[in-house]
Amino acid sequence: MTSTNDRVVPPAARRRRRPTKTGVVLSGELIVETALRLLKEHGADALTVRRLGLALGADPSALYRYFRDTDDLLLAVADELIGRTLRDWRPTGDWRADLRDLGLRVHSGSLAHPQAAVLSSYRVTGRAHEIQAVETILGVLRGAGFPDAEAVRIYHAFVDQALAFAALDAASTALPPAAREAEAGVWRATYARLPADSHPNIAATARHLVHDMRRSAYPTALDMLLGAAAARLAEITGGGRAAGTGPVRDGMRPAAD
Amino acid sequence: MTSTNDRVVPPAARRRRRPTKTGVVLSGELIVETALRLLKEHGADALTVRRLGLALGADPSALYRYFRDTDDLLLAVADELIGRTLRDWRPTGDWRADLRDLGLRVHSGSLAHPQAAVLSSYRVTGRAHEIQAVETILGVLRGAGFPDAEAVRIYHAFVDQALAFAALDAASTALPPAAREAEAGVWRATYARLPADSHPNIAATARHLVHDMRRSAYPTALDMLLGAAAARLAEITGGGRAAGTGPVRDGMRPAAD
DNA sequence: ACCTGAACACCGTTCAAGT
DNA sequence: ACCTGAACACCGTTCAAGT
């Protein structure tokens, strides 16, 4: 079986393309852009091969010349999103501020295309833009002074936290309007009305819950992760223990799941 | 429009049910259990009204007497999963150990039903089991000494991080076998082979990446979050500032996204 | 070489008719 | 009261035929 990443025909071999009935000349880039536009304008349910063909002015089956299947198209969309998110980012040299900015960019980039993000945030594309992002983030951590094993461990937690919250919050944003409104109402209509004798902790904090649960918890979780990373770095660089050697023994030790 | 949570007919009004053609007596519970079994045995694509009807021995359209639509069924599945995850959990009195255990349970519970988790982890059900979970976790944090506003903020970050990682890791687990294998191979086949001159940070850490990216980063992220929470608690209780009053000013301050 | 159109095997949901 | 079966408006994907 061939890899999911290859197109059916390598781009270079597709030189002179016959325009479709409506005069459009198809290309992978045009299809990805159109897919992103469809997702943005009409939601996740709108990304069907048939509607994509219609939007492009081509027969749906023509798309199978460019992408093996819908999953292959989705990975291309995912990589394009990563590229857009990091296109104009530049490091400042302050590792903590840089990671904070990167995390918030990934998160808000996902919310700008929630339907695409919810379908693709958890995928490893192995394509150009993703590789560039991995290289950049590892560079920030190694530049800060984290030894390699530690840099990778924190890289993994940082990236997966960003992607996981991006997908979570994108999923809420991308919910059909009826379900979205129903969920927003649950905190006011259900939680805020629970009696104190059966649910003392919810009743005592209801006011805070109604206020806080509307916003994303990602900025809080991100700052907690960065705070823990900074504490760890201080321990490594200030504690006199040789950096990068020996097992990690305290605080943020790896744990069996 | 009626709420997403109501069934078409209240359970009490459905007394004597006619068995289906194949002799099965339908019920909401039976349908939810069958849906979970279908998801587990045949993956997320198997949860269709038609296949569920087939598995139950009933006409697909009969299910619409019990659930408004597939989303309504999904929320019932989500709440059932929460219930199973916390069914036999008991607090030890050590807030940090208790939260760690709860987080790991949510995560591994999701991986036990990845197809269900990926569809439902980001939903607010407002149903019985979810309410019980919120009450329990808030109780642990308030019992630890966090003032109400802080307890809610940390509750939100803790729960959303657990659910977000659960969904992320469940999504990888639930991927169709071909895509799953392709992703696993990307770290070895693509990242581990990048040259040091173009990608120095990836090349320097390739060995760690191949090893680390196979596992979930959740235990690391969870320990980092709990470490930051512990530091914050020490600050509040040891720092002499009145608990629960005044704005939070340092370290883990809330941030605009 | 590339696009088209028909075909196949599916979906969720509604509603009149049956029991 | 509850289940059934037909109907409607969709899906993704394949492949022989057209240009």
Automatic annotation (TrEMBL), chains A, B:
GO terms classed as biological process: negative regulation of DNA-templated transcription
GO molecular function: DNA-binding transcription factor activity; transcription cis-regulatory region binding
Cross-referenced Pfam families: TetR_C_1, TetR_N
Record carries keyword DNA-binding: yes
SUPFAM superfamilies: Homeodomain-like (SSF46689), Tetracyclin repressor-like, C-terminal domain (SSF48498)
Domain called HTH tetR-type: residue spans: 25-85
PROSITE patterns: HTH_TETR_2
UniProt-listed InterPro entries: Homeodomain-like_sf, HTH-type_TetR-like_transc_reg, HTH_TetR, Repressor_TetR_C, Tet_transcr_reg_TetR-rel_C_sf
Regions recorded as binding DNA: 48-67
Spans traversing the lipid bilayer: none
Keywords: DNA-binding, Transcription, Transcription regulation
Protein name: TetR/AcrR family transcriptional regulator
